[in-house]
Amino acid sequence: MEVVAGADEGATLRADTVLVATGTRPSIPPIDGIDDVEYLTSTEALELETPPDRLVIVGGGYIAAELGHFFGTFGSDVRIVGRREHLLPEADREVGEAFTDRYAERFDVYAGYEAVAAAEHDGEVTVEARPYPEAESVRADGEPVGSPEDADGVSVTGDALLVAAGRRPNTDRLNLEATGVETDAAGFIETDEYLRTSAEGVWALGDVVGEYLLKHSANHEAKAVTRNLLGDDLEPVDYTGMPFAVFASPEVAGVGATEAELREADAEYATRTYAYDDTARGSAMHADGFVKVLIDLDGGIEGCHIVGPEASNLIEEVVVAMTAGSGTVRDVREAVHVHPALSEVVDRAFSGQFSRGGGDGHHHHG
Questions:
Q1: Do 202 and 181 form a contact (C-beta atoms < 8 A)?
Q2: The listed CATH number (3.40.50.1260, 1.20.58.1120, 3.30.390.30, 1.10.730.10) that belongs to domain 245-356
Q3: Among this protein's residues, is 121 annotated catalytic?
Q4: What residue stretches are annotated with the FAD/NAD(P)-binding domain (predicted)?
């Protein structure tokens, strides 16, 4: 392996085992004029010494949501432009819709819009966006508009532009063609179940393998690679119960399948949703949010999705049940939950009557 930049440029490194963990970087979508705009990515945004008065964010995923909350807390007037009909499109739909409703109360949300052009003049950035044809519905300035066919294009202005529209792997800078390490069409390194690449002695983990672009997932993979390198027997990486969390207001967390994924798989399932404010602690906090549970017809936990205070902590009980317990509702339902702790909302969500195949979409209390 040759070092091609930096103080050790030209040096050659040799090893029996090589681990590739070069991560990802922000991906910039093909927006007309974007190269002529002094835009921010998540990297530069966190280096600002003062928040912009008006911030336009292109993107509707985890990073856009978290940085929107971050800058909104510091007083920025935040405008978000996202392609899907609701923010956090990778979350369960019911959670994503609830999150978007809350964000529309705080910020100017343009959901179902695709940014197509950007320009900068006298310190003001303007983003032109048009309805995204693949979105099911459109929301402009926080208000529902209808279908993309019924909506007009919009111009969104601000003092700064933050592009938070996904990430791309850093493999294009590694000359992997010379190594025999294979990548997929998007540039992520392909590995087997042990995280070995197609090249002898070369392993990969973290964002660069594209499984989960999450720090705790990379930590999990690092432990697996360490065991496989130092142990006698190879063990596949177990991604069962890999959670995610969005640190915003409201907080969001989830683990396992979404309801849409179960429907797409034509799976038989049941679901139950329980509101925070129907517990003692949640009511005292005036907490707005809910826990949604998805199970198979034998009681196996398929997924759990939370929007509300401490979601990232509350999800851990379900993660433990799915990874170290029996993986059924009994793990949660039969455990004693402290009263009046916030965790009672998880207990109640797992303890009452479930509705088959999604039910009527309303909260059920037991």
A1: yes
A2: 3.30.390.30
A3: no
A4: 8-220
